[in-house]
From TrEMBL:
Region of interest: Disordered: 384-417
InterPro entries documented for this protein: MFS, MFS_dom, MFS_trans_sf, MFS_Transporters
Compartments, record wording: Cell membrane
Record's protein name: Major facilitator superfamily MFS_1
Sequence ranges of Basic and acidic residues compositional bias: 389-409
Length: 417
């Protein structure tokens, strides 16, 4: 409960500025490129933090990492609350990204330590709840409450303080082990034998988060243009619908076999993208928001299915590093296309043509994800037995964890520096 709530709060903080971008742009006179850069630097900071700090909790413990991340998040949120220009906005977003990147793998691994199945489902569902809640709450406060550029951040600071106090009393789920300095060297911590599943899951993770990036960066402006409204609640509605539908989908499909969940996710993403293209062509706001709900269902199915395809095969001490790799792919999908889209809005013909290009790119990624899934399902049966053996074989030297289902072998990593 506590760990899932922290994921929700961190992701809520990450999406809280989304409805405010138009307010900031009007006050500080910046272009859509700046908007997407502000959005993108967060994703880049998350990536760097995941690479550097993603495995630290395996050596230092989950609790110290979470306390440090929450302290940094409070600092970042305070900077955003008092920002007077783009420089402060960028600094706050970078610190937010570093904090979130350092925390998400530790949080995800800790939830898997406690309960592997529920942890995997919560890992997939909590980000959506947080992202959607943060965007809509921010939009509502900006529209109807005083101090629109300050209040949402002050509320978040209060939440982080309460959660930090609770983390102080939380039991540790792993034993400290040596190797902290080596863990700070950036590398792709994929255990031997899991590169195939990781490469198969990467396209669907990238595609789902690219769609989330669309709704987080261009979505507010597109919603306003299609609806003819200047409401910040309307601006945040697309991201909210996407993430709520994604959360419901992840929860409902939590016990569906991972490859079936991914297949369903690909089908729904494809249908949603085609529906969104039609809505944009007809300038239909109801059609756009309806396609967003379908996209959210595909997001939840594809993301949690992709995570479970990989993480369920890993030993407990491999999970934080492995989750870091999967989140790196996800945040690349969220950040890189969004920044490119911002450039195209200014230099490539405007918002509507850019939205078309973005949606067709998501369709192409969905096709690649389908091809990867089909190839993975045809791998030799003996390889599946090898993967199962390395996951289930006990090792007397492995420190005890609170994993309720099994004790696994220690990590053997394929290094990619």
């Amino acid at each position: 409960m506590l760990l899932g709530s922290i994921v929700i709060s961190l992701l809520a903080a990450s999406s809280a500025p989304t409805p405010l971008y138009a307010t900031y742009a009007d006050a500080w006179h910046f272009s859509p490129i700046t908007t997407t850069v502000v959005f993108g630097v967060y994703a880049i900071a998350v990536l760097v933090s995941l690479l550097v700090f993603g495995r630290v909790s395996e050596h230092l413990g989950r609790r110290p990492v979470l306390l440090a991340a929450l302290a940094l998040q409070i600092t970042a949120t305070a900077i955003l609350a008092t920002a007077q220009g783009v420089d402060a906005l960028l600094l706050g977003r970078v610190l937010q990204g570093i904090s979130t990147g350092g925390a998400v793998s530790a949080l995800g691994a800790a939830m898997m330590d406690i309960d592997r199945h529920r942890g995997a489902v919560t890992n997939a569902a909590a980000p959506g709840i947080g992202t959607g809640t943060g965007a809509l709450l921010s939009g509502w406060l900006v529209q109807y409450a005083p101090a629109p550029t300050h209040l949402v951040y002050l509320v978040l600071i209060g939440v982080f303080v309460v959660q930090g106090t609770a983390v102080l009393r939380m039991p540790e789920t792993v034993h400290r082990t040596p190797g902290l300095r080596a863990a700070l060297v950036p590398r792709m911590a994929v255990p031997t034998g899991l590169w195939g599943p990781v490469l198969a899951a990467a396209p669907i993770l990238f595609a789902t988060w690219a769609l989330a990036g669309f709704y987080g960066s261009l979505g507010p402006a597109l919603a306003r243009q299609l609806s003819g409204s200047h409401s910040t609640v309307v601006a945040a509605l697309g991201l909210f619908l996407l993430t709520v539908a994604g959360t419901l989908s992840a929860a409902i499909l939590g016990r569906t076999p991972p490859h079936k969940a991914v297949m369903l996710g690909i089908a729904l993403l494809t249908a949603a993208t085609l529906a969104a293209l039609t809505a944009i062509d007809k300038e239909s706001a109801p059609g756009f928001f309806g396609s967003t709900i379908i996209a959210g269902l595909g997001f939840g199915a594809g993301f949690q299915g992709g995570l479970r395809t990989v993480v369920s095969r890993a030993a407990p001490r491999e999970r934080a590093g492995l989750l870091s790799v999967l989140y790196i792919v996800s945040y690349l999908g969220m950040g890189l296309p969004s920044v490119i889209a911002g450039i195209l809005v200014v230099h490539g013909g405007g918002l509507m043509p850019t939205a078309h290009h973005y949606m067709w790119s998501v369709l192409a990624l969905s096709a690649i994800a389908l091809a990867g899934l089909l190839l993975t399902n045809r791998r030799p049966r003996i390889q599946r037995h090898v993967t199962r053996d390395r996951r289930e074989r006990p090792n007397p030297q492995e420190p005890r964890t609170q994993d309720r289902t099994h004790h696994d072998t220690g990590p053997t990593y394929s290094k990619c520096h």
